[in-house]
Amino acid sequence: MFWKRKDKRKSDGEAGGSAAATADPPQGHTPGDSDDTPEAEAGADDATGETSKTGTGEDADAAGDTDAAQDPQDAEAGTGRADSDGIQRVTTDGVLRLDNVEHDTSSHTWIVEADDDGVLVIDPAHDSQAILDAVGDREIYLVACTNGYNTHISAAVEVAERDDAPIALHRRELRAWRRTHGAEYRPDHEIEGGGSFTVGDLEVDILPVPGTSAGSVAYYVPERGAVFSGDTLRAGEPGTVGGGYLDYTGQLSSIGEVLLTLPPDTRVLPDNGPETTVEAETRNFDAWVSPG
Questions:
Q1: What's the CATH code of the domain at 51?
Q2: What pTM did the predictor assign?
Q3: Within-domain flag for 20
Q4: Looking at residue 97, what is its pLDDT?
Q5: CA triplet 113, 159, 14: central angle to 5 degrees?
Q6: What is the arithmetic mean of pLDDT over 60-86?
Q7: What is the average pLDDT value for the chain, to the nearest integer?
Q8: pLDDT on residue 24
Q9: Stretch 109-122: mean pLDDT, rounded?
Q10: Which of 121, 149, 223, 250 is most exposed, with minimal Cβ within 10 Å?
């Protein structure tokens, strides 16, 4: 899959046009018009987000035994500018409804500079306008979601519609997607772990990390030295959903066998809380496997 800017904004008065063209899909890609099979269900009920407040690039201290060094420029992320790696964080507050119980939560949406003109948006949550304000005049090439919980997809349609950008989601998250967006809208690309795609100048690897849901993935961008881990791995802990674990053993396998095999200095950028590094979370891993 390949996305890059089209020559489509012919005048400043025109609305943003379609996202970039797609080439032949790679191995591990399922076209978006295929039906999901009975087993293609996310690992939990989805939620409807209700936004209460928004922030961009809020800093926080890492939990647990983490020493992820923050670049001094990261403190400026609250101004809405990308950091030195071309990565921008937008934090919005909302609600996750899981098994008919509402959980207040804060969710990170990540905006990654793909080239001089456009961006990749990962996990658009809750407040589409806050995300679009952060993107500004840049084109949205692709919206990529790490799983189908509403805290990762609730703003996906509105964010993608501005530039007619495609949406990517694992095929096993389609049932959860429909709980938020219905059958009228569906992701354009049904991805699977082990594939990759190119967005602008970036090569993005799709890492399979089932555990918090059946189709959870992480997005690894080697050029940025960063992995977007969704709710699979957070600073100092395996991520929870609604305060609990759905498949703790499977989640630990995804962390140990996939995420922690990346280079030690890789930034881990989760859906919630502060960022960390692979090196920092490797030191924590044994305690999660054999809690003491």
A1: 3.60.15.10
A2: 0.80
A3: no
A4: 76
A5: 85
A6: 50
A7: 81
A8: 33
A9: 97
A10: 223
Mention every residue, 6+ apart, whose C-beta is less than 8 A from residue 132.
158, 159, 162
pLDDT for the residue numbered 72:
33
Sorted by sequence, the CB contacts under 8 Å of residue 251 that are 6+ apart come out as 209, 210, 211, 212, 232, 238, 239, 245
Nearest to 227 by CA among 191, 271, 185: 271
Cα atoms in the Cβ-side hemisphere of radius 13 Å centred on 76: 10
Q: Which residues of 180-210 are buried (b: 16+ CB within 10 A; e: fewer)?
A: bbeeeebbbbbbbbebbbbbbebebbbbbbb
Within 91-184, where are the H helices? 128-135, 150-153, 156-162, 174-181
Best CA proximity match to 168, nearest among 197, 208, 201: 197
Say how many Å lie between the first and final Cα of the chain, rounded: 45
Q: Is the dihedral of CA 199, 145, 104, 211 positive or negative?
A: negative
Q: Give burial (CB, 10 Å; 0-12/13-18/19+) of 268.
A: buried
Query: In terms of DSSP H, where are the helices of the chain?
Result: 128-135, 150-153, 156-162, 174-181, 248-257, 278-289
Is residue 25 domain-resident? no
DSSP state of 232: S
For residue range 226-240, list pLDDT tens digits in order.
999 999 999 999 999
Domain, as residue range, for 188: 40-60+73-289
How many domains, in total, are found in the chain? Answer: 1
Determine, yes or no, domain membership for 1.
no
Residue 26 lies in a domain: no
